[in-house]
Amino acid sequence: MTENPETRRAGHAAQEGPGTAGEREAHRPLLVCTPLRAEAQAVRRGLRDSAKAAGGVSGADAPSVLRTGYGAARAASRASEIRHLPFGMLAIMGTGAGLAADLRPGDLVVAAEITGAGPAGPQGTAAADDAGAVAPELPGTAGTGAGRTAVRCPSAPLLAGELRRAGLRARTGTVVTVGHLVGRAEREKLARAGCALADMESAPLAAAGGGRPVAVVRAVSDTGALLRPGTLTGGVSALRSLRAAGPVLSRWAAACGPRRVLLAGPRSFCAGVERAIEIVERALEQRGSPVYVRKQIVHNTHVVADLEQRGAIFVDELDEVPDGASVVFSAHGVSPAVRAEAARRELSVVDATCPLVAKVHAEARRFAGEGYLVALIGHEGHEEVEGTLGEAPGSVVLVQDSDDVAKLRPRDTGKVAYLMQTTLAADEASEVVDALHEAFPDVRGPGSDDICYATTNRQRAVRAVAADSDLVLVAGSANSSNSRRLVETAERAGAPAHLIDGPDDIELGWLAGAGTIGLTAGASAPPSVVEDIIAALGGLGPVEVSERVTTTESLRFSLPKEVRQ
Ligand code: SF4
User: What is the pTM of this model?
Assistant: First the structure.
């Protein structure tokens, strides 16, 4: 096992590590800026609701709410005072004008980026540098004569996800701060530029965060033609949403602080998944859209959504595929009955079954042909299991646990064999294997361990990081068997662990007090999701990232001849 000596840092205060200024700031309270009196009242009530539910927070730890006044000029003037105040994290809450077509009054927009007019000078510049972005030229943003500010809030997906779990309608987006009232034409232009919501204060206030965690939550008060003070204060449903967001904001503040992320290596895509995705990509390139794919090509929502956008059509069964069309079989494999149906329908098939799954199918046929009863250790309903069962329906029987082993009634107790689903947890399968050996001393196993190299490697790697982590996060979709097994493996190693499809699935309560987070990804989860999670955690404070590598992988599978050219 090697500990990657190269650590990297992420987050607003990336220049600071745990135990430095970032740690000191984390112990300081939350400061909430709200422009108008009605907004301040709603937010105070929401924070009080939260404190009551938590048994009361008082003194230096209590969040403070500061009314900053209406408009960009007042906000810019208050911003220069705010940056000298003692606070650990900054939130800007208020109402705003919805620009995106899907927004309606009362919806919350959590800023992933704030752009627009802001204070000139070193603070504004520093914020823009942290963000690594330059504000685009936008209409209505140059009215104050002050500089332009772009601030990113990387923790926005975490906050928006938590707001949705609290029952609120919330999305992330770009919030643009405008220096003057904008009419319908300007609003349409801002929407076309990708802005979700317009306000008149967030940009200069967010820049006052000075590298500390910043959150901007704006409730849509109107989606009409003009941005006016009357509409900003008038949205009852917007104020109700702001109040309801108070407890969530408290959880966001409690989750802020410096932390370490310990990456498990290897993680993410295996050779079988890379091959399956490349097969669909090549089929699309060579045959054009649409290319049909039976079942999810791999069990991951991001991979499926990406391929769908590029022209793949995912179907559950072949009767949804037009006669003569191109169809790809997924990495999990299919039964001979599905192959026969595709041939009867004269479909042009490209088989993306992982070669390691195909090996299990071949062993099932071999054992069945020799008269063995084959116990297939796996999970009911999984596509891979269904495909293997279909290889010899009379001879292959699913066993999920040792109770199922006790129910086996072979014709010849000397002719029992077992095979395994490739994505099982190694220690989970070994219990059933032991039960089989006890019940049938002559039981035969597969030639080599059927739990694939990628599953074994990822489980070993997550065990190595779980031992030193307060919390383990596993990137992967809910229907990904190998990702779920990683959660179980981490839990067995003693760490609380959760499966997440992306950053917005992370519950803020998990993060409070979690100084070291182990992070891995199932074999079907793209590496970009891991990067998104690290970026989101970096929005809560400085993050030091290191990698613990238990083994390196170099295996690649060749492509089928149909797409090899
Ligand atoms: S996890 Fe193993 S069996 Fe499954 S696709 Fe990857 S390499 Fe193949």
Answer: 0.88
Mean pLDDT by 10 residues, the chain (565 residues): 62 45 61 95 90 63 89 92 92 94 94 73 35 37 48 97 98 93 86 94 93 96 62 75 95 96 98 98 96 96 98 96 95 94 95 95 94 95 92 93 94 95 80 94 82 90 97 97 94 97 98 96 98 98 97 96 90
Q: Which of 276, 298, 280 is nearest to 288 (CA)?
A: 280
Amino acid making up residue 75:
A
Q: Give the C-alpha separation, 455 to 67, whole Å.
A: 54
How many A from CA of 482 to the centre of ligand 1? 9
Alpha carbon nearest to ligand 1 atom 5, residue: 272
**Residue ranges lining ligand 1, Cβ < 6 Å:** 270-273, 331, 354, 356-357, 422-423, 452, 454-455, 482, 523
Q: Please, are residues 380 and 400 in contact by the beta-carbon 8 Å criterion?
A: yes
**537, 496 Cβ separation under 8 angstroms:** no
Count of C-beta atoms within a 10 Å radius of residue 343: 10
Beta partners for residue 222, in sequence order: 97
- Ligand 1 atom having least distance to the Cα of 276: 5
Distance CA 263, CA 260 (A): 10
- Long-range pairs of 231-237 with CB within 8 A, sequence gap ≥ 24: 231/97, 232/35, 232/36, 232/70, 232/94, 232/95, 232/96, 232/97, 233/36, 233/38, 233/39, 233/95, 235/95, 235/105, 235/106, 237/105, 237/106
Among the atoms of ligand 1, which is closest to the Cα of residue 354? 8
Ligand 1: atom nearest CA of 275 is: 5
Q: What is the pLDDT of residue 27?
A: 60
Tokens 């990456």 correspond to 263
Which residue in the list 25, 39, 201, 384 is annotated as catalytic? 384
Active-site residue, 285 included? no
Q: What is the DSSP string of 409-470?
A: --SSTT-EEEEE-TTS-HHHHHHHHHHHHHH-TT-B--SS--S-HHHHHHHHHHHHHHTT-S
Element (H, E) at 171: strand 170-177
DSSP assignments along 4-68, one per residue? -S--EEESTTTT--TTSHHHHHHTSPEEEEESSHHHHHHHHHHHHHHHHHTT---GGGS-EEEE-
